[in-house]
Amino acid sequence: MRTDDRKQVVFAGGGTGGHLFPGLAVAEKLAAQWPHARITFAGTGKAWERRLVAAAGFDYLPLRCRQFPRRLGEALPFVWHNLKGYRSAARYLGWHRVAVVVGLGGYASAAMARAAARCGVPLVLLEQNVVPGRATRWLARSATIVCVAFEQTVGYLGDRCTVRVTGNPVREAILQRSLLALHGPHELASLGPASAGSLFADATKPDKRLLVLGGSTGARSLNQNVPQALRRIGRLLGGWKILHQSGEWEFEKTRRLYAASGLPAEVRPFLPDLPEVLGRSDLAVSRAGGTTLAELAAAGVPAVLLPYPLATDDHQRKNAEVFAAAGGAVLLDERQSGARLGQHLAAAIAALVGDHGRREAMSAAIRRRAYPDAAWDVATMIRHLAWN
């Protein structure tokens, strides 16, 4: 028996900002196109996830889920939690008029996406990385459409499904902040959406910002090596402000490293105001998750990329290779650098902080990797599926 007769779209996934943020970007566009639809996010139940979804004005459904087991002892809890999550998802689909389920990738999307496939509900998958994740590969044959961020991803999925290269959806606030930083409030109103791809970074700001991003939970390697690298080149950083997102667990340790180096850096566990921060940044040192790269591209922020070396299927390195080949980023491989990572990182940053012309060229190049209409295009596909 259904408890709500409104048509509904369920976004399934979360666990990391890299999976959740593209879903929020699409959901806000879908709400604009289809204001009477009910939009629900089904996720891990983590407090930060609930908070972001509530702030965006959408409903939230927690589902049991567990990451793929790395050890034998984790196999039974993995099966039990995910089976419970799948059963809860199937009941939810039976009780509500769900028109489309959107899988955001990762382990948190699997229960609801699999239930949609079994219940005959149209399933759209979003894939943020060059190499499709386990959830995408597993569910691709059951999906109505798979929306991918990179052209190279099509080759991995083969003939298993219908694939659309939409780019990775980015939150509207990031796109708007980027335009505002480039042109100011008076010119922004006259800009069309297509003009963003050809704009250059503003070279007139009195202070420049170096942004360090390790993903939504931070990155230990960046927390340890970036302060040491910047200490080596401290004399080159006059006129630069440093903002480092450390993650909760290593906030104090990272802050102490900067204090010991004598660098006046601002260290924060998390950046809830990332759209504003990106709009005022001139260079980033970052991991290479698909969503982070899409946001850097939308904001036109050139980057030194250090892919997470233990990422599944080495997908971060493959993401970074695309951006480096396009000229918008410099790629450093931690495995090749080894103990000399700090030295290599210092050299890469030093080559960029003092060369405005190169940063400007990289900014233009990384913007060419942006898909500013991705969220709108995916939302349009979802709406069409819901009404067919």
Instruction: Return the CATH architecture of the largest domain.
Output: 3-Layer(aba) Sandwich
| Sheet of most strands | 7 strands, parallel
- State the order of secondary-structure elements, H for helix, E for strand: EHEHEHEHEHEHEHEHEHEHEHEHEHHHH
Secondary structure: helix percent: 40-55%
Evaluate the radius of gyration. 21 Å
Structural domains: how many: 2
CATH topology of the largest domain: Rossmann fold
Explain what you see:
The chain has 388 residues and is α/β, with parallel strands linked by helices. The protein folds into two domains: 4-170 and 372-387, Rossmann fold, CATH 3.40.50; 172-367, Glycogen Phosphorylase B (Rossmann fold), CATH 3.40.50.2000. The chain is 46% helix and 16% strand. The chain has 16 helices and 13 strands. The chain has a seven-stranded parallel sheet with strand order 3-2-1-4-5-6-7. A six-stranded parallel sheet has the order 10-9-8-11-12-13, sandwiched between helices. Helix 2 links the parallel strand 2 and strand 3 (59-62). Helix 8 (220-232) runs parallel beside helix 9 and helix 8 crosses helix 14. The longest helix is centred in the N-terminal third of the chain and has 21 residues, at 75-95. The protein is globular. Residues 191-204 have low confidence and may be disordered.
